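Posting this for the archive.
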Amino acid sequence: MDPQEPDATVRTDDSPTVPPVPPKPEAVAAYERIAGEGGWHDEVGWLLLFAGGIGPAVAVSSDEPLGLTALALVPLALVVRIAGHRQGKQKAALRTEAEAYARGVVAARAAGAQAPELTPALRELLEP
């Protein structure tokens, strides 16, 4: 080996390596869009269910048949609860990828990379 030629395996640059900032996956953007939504499905679903049960009870006890129309609230309550459950499952599925992306951005920033600021939804994932 010629002493004039540097060895290809020896680093001559003394600057620290900065890890790359991970690209934002579509799943993370989708999580950011739906992170603040929801939460009301559970309460509204229960309220509709109770109203759908109380109305007929009042109708039977007071001989007022109009109260039986409250039974129409029961299917609506089920639809609201199912929609909330589906949204919760979707959020949980996207949460893992969003959390991994947020940790990657924080690690890149800690190593000195120029990384974008995390959105409030992503910062919330990293809070204990």
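The chain has four helices and no strands. Helices lie at 26-34, 40-62, 73-110, 120-126.
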